[in-house]
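Notes from hallway chat w/ T.B., transcribed later so I don't forget. T.B. wanted the structure written out for a chain they're using in a teaching module, and asked if we could keep both sequence and structure tokens in one place. Agreed to drop them here.
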Amino acid sequence: MVILGATATGKSAVALALATASGGEIVNADAFQLYRGLDIGTAKPDAEARRRAPHHLLDQLEPGQRSSAGEYARRARAVLDEIAARGRPAFVVGGSGLYLRALLAGLAELPPVVEEARAALASRLASEGLPALRRELERLDPASAMRLRPGDTQRTLRALEIAHGSGRTLSSWLAASSTSAEPLRAAKFGLTLPRGVLYDRIEARVFEMIDRGWPDEVRGLLASGVTPDAPALRAIGYADWVRHLRGQSSFDETVARIVSATRRYAKRQETWFRREPDVVWLDAEEPERATAEIRRRLEQLS
């Protein structure tokens, strides 16, 4: 069973209530909760939640390691097989849409990253800017360029990495590739909130994270040797706190940027998940009722 939705809709609390009542186990589907040391800013389940129910796929990676949806899907499927062998229900919980898609539907097989190509493109991005790389992609792989927003730096670079590193375009790989795994059947439940309520919750949660020591968490990561360009620090808010700790932004400016970025992310999540088929949407303003409705529907399916 999958519980999905935008950040701050209360997915983890509903999943914990369900797992506690049923003897189930929880499988993380948040891309940045995979990283060790990113606890407060990713709203990672705390020690008490982990005592109440087993949690999987938390703290799997060091901050400097790269993560991918495909690797996540492989790990998650292995964990789900283990949970099924124990005869216990599994609750996949998170808001990383691509990771959930990789788990449920599979992803096309793509070539591994060629680090030389990645480094060269990163250097060119700094010296030439994204528009120049976008024009190159339009010339080399017009089909991929048409699918990407002009300002999508990450995916533009990835498409060019594949073209330069493999000698074939991303669109040709996608056309020739079968998905990496058979689709996984699962009941899907989504938690949703009115936009204004969601935005208020996001702001309140950012201040709660600050009260719990989010800036100190970032300070500790840097002191331990994590570099500002580490893959883990792409999580919302972490780079903003790095700039603040370096004296490059005020506290109020930092908080405002984090709140704004989180709200934009939540809006993108909602757009993504509304395109996901067969989701039963439930009102997150009434978590107890949502939990009861999920239990009722699952009983009907069993």
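Follow-up for T.B.: The chain has two domains: 2-107+180-301, 115-176. Might be a good example for the class.
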